[in-house]
Design a protein that fits this description.
Structural class: alpha+beta
Number of helices: 3
CATH topology: GMP Synthetase, Chain A, domain 3
Number of domains: 1
Oligomer: single chain
CATH superfamily: Fe-S cluster assembly (FSCA)
Mean pLDDT: 93
CATH architecture: 2-Layer Sandwich
């Protein structure tokens, strides 16, 4: 089985949506890093728009599940980080405009 690529990972997690705003977590700028070890291991560092996000565990579980279902992924980890703090400037420009930010 071929190993997943960074592109595969991004496409998979782009389908994860923040349920409060209905926008991809990738487009919201919540993904801070993706690391792959070349042996089927994937680690994603992500944040939330707020430390008080009531759906953080739901969103993280969605990302985890999407990673685990990628062909070639043997181990997937999702780490929640708070540095740097998220800000609206991290969103894609079109998304900022659509949300009126």
């Amino acid at each position: 089985m071929a190993a997943a690529t960074i592109g595969d990972v991004v496409r998979a997690i782009r389908e994860a949506v923040d349920p409060e705003v209905g926008v991809s977590i990738v487009d919201l700028g919540l993904i801070y890093g993706i690391r792959m070890d070349g042996k089927g291991g994937v680690r994603v560092e992500m944040t939330m728009t707020s430390p008080m996000c009531p759906l953080a565990s739901v969103i993280m579980a969605d990302v985890q599940l999407r990673l685990e279902h990628l062909p070639g992924v043997r181990k997937a980890e999702v780490d929640l980080v708070w540095e740097p703090p998220w800000s609206p400037e991290m969103m894609e420009g079109e998304i900022r405009a659509n949300l009126g930010v």
